[in-house]
Amino acid sequence: MLRIGIDVGGTNTDAVVMDGTRVVEWVKMNNSADITAGITAALHQLLRQAGVEATQIGAVMIGTTQFTNAVVQRRDLAPVAALRLCLPAAQSLPPMVDWPEDLREAVGNCWFLAHGGYEFDGREIAPLDEAELRGIAGQIRDRGIDAVAISAVFSPINREMEQRAADILGNELPGAQITLSEEIGRVGLLERENAAILNACLRPLGARVVDAFTRALAGAGIEAPLYLTQNDGTLMAADYAKRFPVLTFASGPTNSMRGAAFLSGLQEALVVDIGGTTTDVGALHHGFPREAGAAIEVGGVRTNFRMPDVLSIGLGGGSLVQDGATLTVGPQSVGYKLVEEGLVFGGQTLTATDVAVAAGMAEIGDAEKVRELDASLVTRTLAAISSMVEVACDRMLLTPEPVPVLVVGGGSILVGDKIGVLSATRPPYFPVANAVGAAIAQISGEIDRVYALAELPREQALADAKRQATERAVEAGAVADSVEIVEVEEVPLAYLPSNATRIRVKAVGDLARG
């Protein structure tokens, strides 16, 4: 089965066609304001260069930053009604209490507290009040809100209340899109609730984006199923992505790291992904991105769903170089306008790419246009770039021992073969490692719950968690009999009674072959 992997970044759209583990052909297209048009153009050029018919494609995987950008830029966000099942407890910090004010207003700042929720061991805080929920549904209807995020205290332990509340609100609000926090986040209430609200406000945009991608494939004559990449390096089916667009956050760096691991054969390494606007530095562990151990902020909002541990800095091929009182490189960038505004392309803006060309590190555009660039400026700019990348790598290291560094991305021309004392290598097809990472991805499912082992034996608790993780992987598009458990984490919670233990299980399975 031939696969196409696509990664849509801030500057370029990268695409590859793969036959099993072999890269058949690749393209890198400069973006335009119309992202969908860029994907369509990349697909046409890719098929033409590869000499492949559209009917030969068995699956298409796309990684996109559109949902992250929507939150960061406060645009295309739907009003959301946030419902927390918690009374008479957990009311001192209301929903969205720690959000930036502009983002809170962008999603409507509408929230309700209702009776319900659980203790850590599954005991009810209070029974669900169905009449109360119907009254809340009426208020939501009066406000004209169609997106609802439901969270309950300790719902990852018992999902029943969230699901029952969803049924009640669904009956009262026909057509409403309802997100349950237990399907997205982990145990912590506020961060899990935040993730659910973000997902709810993105669902209408998710439907539009996925439908646009589907039209782009149809425009190229491709009838293969569409998948979107998640932030843990795996895939989800298009319909699943419509329900959970928030799971695409940070999928771009993740794709690059997975692609770097695949192309290099290394399972443990640092990955430096230099694009047109930013540089992302992360660590590989067992071939997958190392997950962040703390809450991650997206657009100023703390969340606790799975996210890669990635450090991003404002350095890329389109970064502005400004030689004032202090020389600076980035974070401002010309982005996808590099081919119009960069000096080597006939523009008037000095960028990091122009400096790399002047130093003989790359053959891009017209080198004659930067031949007269001040040698001192070139040297100082390259030193600043090297220092920025070296500091970022040092911050991501967890051990004093040297580790391999894999440099990928179109902007990798900005660094040499050494990053500080670390040796840097570029694997084959390094300019499109992100698209390769998308093309090779598998399907995953994850569960994160607290079990009272005094009531449920450890073996049964583990079996239950593995079963739920497997079910989620299959729901996301994995072949059922290919699913394997790849990660099991047990954390005894000594401060709680009943021998409470937090169990996190991740399952990964193969994509159905077309």
Radius of gyration: 24 Å
Write the CATH fold name of one domain. Answer: Rossmann fold
Mean residue pLDDT = 88
Report, as a whole number of angstroms, the end-to-end distance.
6 Å
Percent strand: 25-35%
Shape call: globular
Which segments are poorly predicted (pLDDT under 50) over 5 or more consecutive residues?
none
- Would you count the extended β strands for me? 24
Biggest sheet details: 7 strands, mixed
CATH architecture of one domain: 3-Layer(aba) Sandwich
Helix amount: 25-40%
What is the SS-derived class?
Answer: alpha/beta
CATH class of one domain, anyone?
Alpha Beta
Count up the helices: 13
Which terms would index this structure?
alpha/beta, 6-stranded mixed β-sheet, single chain, Rossmann fold, 514 residues, 7-stranded mixed β-sheet, 13 helices, 32% helix
Describe the structure concisely.
The protein has helices spanning 35-50, 66-73, 101-106, 130-142, 160-172, 189-219, 238-243, 251-264, 338-341, 352-358, 375-396, 433-439, 458-476, and strands spanning 2-8, 12-19, 22-30, 57-64, 80-87, 110-115, 147-152, 177-180, 226-229, 235-237, 269-274, 279-285, 288-289, 296-298, 301-303, 310-313, 319-323, 327-333, 405-408, 418-419, 422-425, 443-452, 484-492, 500-509. The chain is an alpha/beta fold and 514 residues long. Strands 11, 12, 13, 16, 19, 20 and 21 form a 7-stranded mixed beta sheet that branches. A 6-stranded mixed beta sheet has the order 3-2-1-4-9-10. It has a 4-stranded parallel beta sheet with strand order 6-5-7-8, with helices on both faces.
